[in-house]
């Protein structure tokens, strides 16, 4: 990270901390804050600068709650550019942050204001989830659904089944897992790829297979995939709380995942399993 980029990150971190500490007292500063942040979103020369500005808007909105509503049209005009960004590396980074900020609106601006947007937000999440390969993007989409359920659960009723099943897929996934062998000369392999390649095949030599397992020193999981699992569990729990009888068909399976993952090695996942 360059000196300039690091200074920018620290500045925005200070701004977000300021918003958190100010709470509703942030309201008198909203016109200037929103104006400057939307300018940064539109004209920052770097993706990182745009990402930080979008995140800061989320922090401002979280503190201001319904007081942000008069500025919502102005903010959404700029956010929509990134909510529908192409799935390039930069596009995914900005889309992920924009969806995270959208989740703040779902929780904070009030049902009357958010309700007209709820259906469109659900469809946006589903459309992106269908093609999302990035764990951070999927994680933010799950959190968006949970946020919508806290305000407008009825918007999720027609499409709850594919949403919940996608979360279950995340909890089952071995994506991002890599084995570590005791013998450094044995190459690493991706556990997910190995499972896919081995489906329908049986080893002719069970002793050889057992020997391979004995040589495994451990399995590492990339942080992004761990965070995705943790947020999938947390989102399922929130959906269960907010969707009332509509979630009944998924209670047993959700409870089963919670039991299965309560001893997971990663604290993020364990915390989600006991919510």
Provide a quick synopsis of the model:
With 275 residues, this protein is mainly α. The protein has helices at 3-22, 30-43, 47-64, 72-83, 89-108, 111-131, 135-151, 160-172, 191-198, 206-214, 223-242, 248-261, 267-273, and strands spanning 177-181, 216-221.
Structure in words:
Helix content is 70%, strand content 4%. The radius of gyration is 21 Å and the shape is globular. It is mainly α. The mean pLDDT is 85. It has helices at 3-22, 30-43, 47-64, 72-83, 89-108, 111-131, 135-151, 160-172, 191-198, 206-214, 223-242, 248-261, 267-273; strands at 177-181, 216-221. It has a two-stranded antiparallel ribbon.
Rounded to the nearest angstrom, the distance between the terminal CA atoms is 36 Å
Any low-confidence stretches, pLDDT <50, length ≥5? none
Structural class: mainly alpha
> What's the helix-strand series?
HHHHHHHHEHHEHHH
Query: How do the strands of the widest beta sheet line up side by side?
Result: 1-2
Which range best describes the helical content: under 10%, 10-25%, 25-40%, 40-55%, 55-70% or over 70%?
over 70%
Task: Give the overall pLDDT as a whole number.
Answer: 85
- Using only CA atoms, what is the Rg? 21 Å
The proportion of residues in beta strands is under 5%
Count of DSSP E strands?
Answer: 2
Largest sheet composition? 2 strands, antiparallel
Number of helices: 13
Query: Quick one: overall form?
Result: globular
């Amino acid at each position: 990270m360059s000196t300039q980029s690091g200074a920018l990150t620290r500045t925005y971190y200070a701004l977000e901390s300021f918003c958190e500490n100010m709470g509703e007292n942030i309201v008198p500063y909203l016109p200037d804050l929103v104006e400057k942040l939307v300018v940064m979103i539109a004209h920052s020369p770097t993706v990182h600068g745009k990402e930080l500005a979008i995140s800061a808007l989320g922090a401002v909105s979280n503190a201001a709650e319904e007081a942000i509503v008069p500025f919502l049209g102005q903010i959404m005009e700029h956010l929509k550019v990134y909510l529908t960004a192409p799935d390039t590396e930069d596009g995914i980074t900005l889309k992920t942050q924009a969806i995270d900020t959208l989740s703040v609106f779902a929780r904070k601006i009030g049902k009357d204001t958010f309700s007209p947007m709820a259906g469109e937000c659900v469809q946006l999440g589903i459309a992106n989830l269908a093609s999302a390969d990035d764990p951070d993007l999927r994680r933010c989409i799950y959190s968006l659904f949970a946020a919508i359920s806290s305000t407008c659960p009825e918007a999720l009723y027609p499409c709850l089944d594919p949403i919940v099943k996608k979360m279950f897929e995340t909890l089952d996934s071995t994506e991002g897992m890599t084995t570590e062998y005791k013998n450094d000369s044995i190459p690493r392999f991706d556990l997910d790829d190995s499972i896919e390649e081995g489906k329908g095949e049986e080893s002719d030599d069970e002793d050889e297979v057992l020997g391979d397992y004995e040589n495994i020193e451990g399995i590492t999981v990339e942080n992004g995939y761990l965070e995705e699992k943790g947020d999938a569990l947390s989102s399922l729990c929130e959906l269960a709380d907010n969707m009332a009888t509509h979630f009944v068909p998924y209670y047993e399976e959700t409870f089963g995942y919670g039991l299965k993952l309560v001893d997971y090695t990663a604290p993020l996942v364990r915390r989600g399993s006991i919510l």
